[in-house]
Amino acid sequence: MKLTNLMLSAFVAVFAMVACNKEDSTPEAKRLRTVEVSLDNVMITRGLAGDKINSGDAVYVGDFKIFLTDASGNEYTAKVVDGSAPAQTYWSKEDLAGGFALKNAQFHYVDPNCSKVVAVANLGRDITFAEYKALAALKVEDQQDQKTLVLYDEKTLAPAGTQHNDAAADGTTYVADVYKADLVLKPRVSRFEVDGFTVRFNETPKYNEIKISQIAFQNYYPLTSVVTGAESGTIVNHIENLTNQAEVYTWLDDAAKPSVWYRDYFDLTITPEKNSADTPDNLAYHIFSCNETPVFVIKLLADGQPAYLYSKGFFKTEGNQIVEVKEFEEGKIYRMSASGEVEKDGSIPIDEDDIDPMDRCLEITVDVVDWAVELVYPEF
């Protein structure tokens, strides 16, 4: 009898312990996951579209959305730490106004089949997973303002090597393996920055005065996919034949002077005594990243005679060598470089001998770094 009472007391004690602390005994392979997401390159701030971007500057984020998914394209949900409500996966401009920074944000009670995290920013609204998968292609003309560039990244989850002992609102506790994803949001564009021109005059100058009045940009894709970054559409060339003077001048002399993203007007005068001039504003042109080399077209007067130059390539310094840039990458800035001749980067260098009716090609030097900013120069 005493033994029976003792066993009953022990059973009641064990039952009480389990009722108060419902320990999770789920096999490891089927355990719910805790997912940690970090967006280390995000800066919640405002800037002007024409502001020069410095190397290592964070991208601008006005709103962003997080999706938990897998390689097959399934969506998974998450909850807050006590399981009482769905986890927040969209942050609006108003949410971010309070200085929110996403550093190691945690998503709890995630299905163990979840293997990937996707982040998309600056769409201006919350979207469903179905809407995300059906996002329309980005238009290049809509991706010219650095404050509103659509940003994207996706990463496969990696084990963090730690576990969480989480407690649900009903008192249940469970062990969750922690997985992490370090996202680096990038725009789908490369950025070209110009803030002036530098003419390299000969020891005995050929010209007394160079006036530069226009720069135009061409040879770029009109569309790209938000999700894959694949370019599409017919490559845009406003001037089909750059060696045809009549065609070039007809386009450059367009009296309407349309206000479009790929064309800027100014009035700069450069002389042997003052061989550099800055544009009134910092100029920037965004193209979808690709292996196609974009082209600058420059309109000028050399001692009053009409002339034009067009770039035939962009070059950068690697160690002690000058190499041609063959691929223009997402999230990189290609800044014109007249290194050693001007105090700041951004000036397009032009050799006086390039200003010749028989040779209108120009090679441009650029510097390339991560936004990334990369200094380069064009060859005309």
Q: Kindly state the mean pLDDT as a whole number?
A: 82
The CATH architecture of the largest domain is Sandwich
Structural class: mainly beta
How large is the count of helical segments? 4
Order of helices and strands: HEEEEEEHEEHEEEEEEEEEHEEEEEEEEE
CATH fold-type name of the largest domain? Immunoglobulin-like
Beta content comes to: 35-45%
Shape: elongated
Number of domains: 2
Query: Whole-number radius of gyration?
Result: 29 Å
Give your account of this protein's structure.
- With 380 residues, the protein is mainly β.
- It folds into 2 domains: 24-187, Immunoglobulin-like, CATH 2.60.40; 189-379, Immunoglobulin-like (Sandwich).
- 9% of the residues lie in helices and 43% in strands.
- A hairpin with a 2-residue loop joins strand 25 (361-370) and strand 26 (373-379).
Annotation keywords:
mainly beta, disordered N terminus, 380 residues, 9% helix, single chain, Immunoglobulin-like
SSE layout:
Blueprint (H helix, E strand, L loop, with lengths): L1 H19 L12 E7 L2 E2 L15 E2 L3 E6 L5 E2 L13 E2 L1 H4 L8 E6 L5 E6 L7 H5 L4 E2 L11 E6 L1 E10 L5 E11 L2 E2 L1 E12 L9 E9 L4 E2 L6 E2 L12 H8 L10 E8 L5 E13 L6 E8 L2 E14 L2 E4 L7 E5 L10 E5 L9 E10 L2 E7 L1
Parallel strand pairs: 1-12, 2-3, 14-23, 14-24, 21-25, 23-26
Antiparallel strand pairs: 1-7, 4-5, 4-6, 4-8, 8-10, 9-16, 10-13, 11-12, 14-19, 15-18, 15-20, 16-17, 20-21, 21-22, 21-26, 25-26
